[in-house]
Amino acid sequence: MIEKSLSTFLNKKVDAYERPDFIADDPISIPHLFSTPQDIEIAGFFAAILAWGNRKSIINSCKRLLQLMDQAPYDFVMHFEEADLKPFMHFVHRTFNATDLFHFLDFLQHHYKIQKQGSLQTAFSRHLQPADTTVEPALIGFRRSFFDAKIFPHYPARTQKHIATPERKSACKRLNMYLRWMVRSSKRGVDFGLWQDIRPSQLICPLDLHVARVARHFNLLQRPNNDWQAALELSEHLRQLDPRDPVKYDFALFGLGVIEKF
């Protein structure tokens, strides 16, 4: 049982950090540049995938990528041809380079244009069953389809490292962060609440070094490794605080760890 005093403390920290003024210095600022659902979810997908390293560097790389897409990611995904990719040849963010980017664009074009899907949500939600209590099957299914050799027979092997999966024991921090953005309510002006087929209660808390450190301090996490089982353990503890919206505490744990240096 989690002490009421800890619950009260963390709820106050959620209120302090789940605010629009949190957005400017966070990668979530990238999808907030757009207003149409497809632009938001594509920009958000790239922002989450590139969310590795210094936040300022992440945001700058995302803006550079979107500029190459003429600030219209959905239109670009729907209509690009091979010749349109030449300006992207030198794009790089840490270990993510043009080779990886081209496969990402191929997947997105196949999803929206060839499969005629109106939202990226279905790439995740179609792998869920009504009884599933977490998004684990969605993450596993998404990665499998992302590298489906029947559809993408020549996908680059190096690109696999950029899409995590619970099957490889990864905490899947960036994909869980992306799902938080798309699924949680927009009432506070931070997350978007665009996707209705995944429940907030199914979300898994994005687990990074800062969140894990703070979680262990409060005995919300006992497992020593920051892996998928640790992400599940933390999220299960957070469900004791709020069964319907456990991942809202990502704001509290992240804010305490990164901003307050807790």
Largest sheet: 2 strands, antiparallel
The pLDDT mean sits at 97
Name the shape in a single word.
globular
What is the total tally of β strands? 2
Low-confidence stretches: none
How helical, in percent, are the residues?
Answer: 40-55%
Distance between the termini: 23 Å
Radius of gyration: 18 Å
H-E order: HHHHEEHHHHHHH
- Strand order in space, largest sheet: 1-2
Protein architecture, described:
The two termini are 23 Å apart. Strand 1 and strand 2 form a beta hairpin. The mean pLDDT is 97. With 262 residues, this protein is an all-alpha fold. Strands 1-2 form a two-stranded antiparallel sheet. The protein is globular and about 60 Å long.
What is the secondary structure topology, with strand pairs?
Layout: H1 4-17, H2 37-49, H3 55-68, H4 73-79, E1 92-93, E2 96-97, H5 98-114, H6 121-125, H7 136-146, H8 173-183, H9 209-217, H10 228-241, H11 249-259
Antiparallel strand pairs: 1-2
